[in-house]
Amino acid sequence: MLVKFVILFLAAMALVGFVGKLLFPASFRRITTIRPALGKPSRCRRCGRYLLGKGGCDCGKG
After folding, report:
1. What are the CB-based long-range contacts (under 8 Å, 24+) for 7-13?
2. What is the rounded CA–CA span in Å between residue 59 and residue 62?
3. Residue 62 and residue 49: Cα distance in Å, rounded?
């Protein structure tokens, strides 16, 4: 009985997703695309790793 409920719930969620994608296609496209205004992510000049947050890279420490 529980398996039927889970399968019906997942099917209902998929149906809601399909209907939402048909009614509002621009909003889904906007979420999944990378914004060009943000530019490329910053990288470390020494090792080339991507910099996350405000701190520096680990290669300069130690």
Report:
1. none
2. 8
3. 16
Query: Which structure tokens are listed for 57?
Result: 């890279």
Name the H helices within the chain: 2-23, 25-32
Is the pTM for the entire model greater than 0.85?
Answer: no
Retrieve residue 21's tokens: 């994608």
Q: Is residue 59 within 8 Å of 46, Cβ to Cβ?
A: yes
pLDDT tens-place values along the chain, 62 residues long: 999 999 999 999 999 999 988 888 776 665 555 555 566 778 888 888 888 877 778 887 53
Amino acid occupying residue 35: R
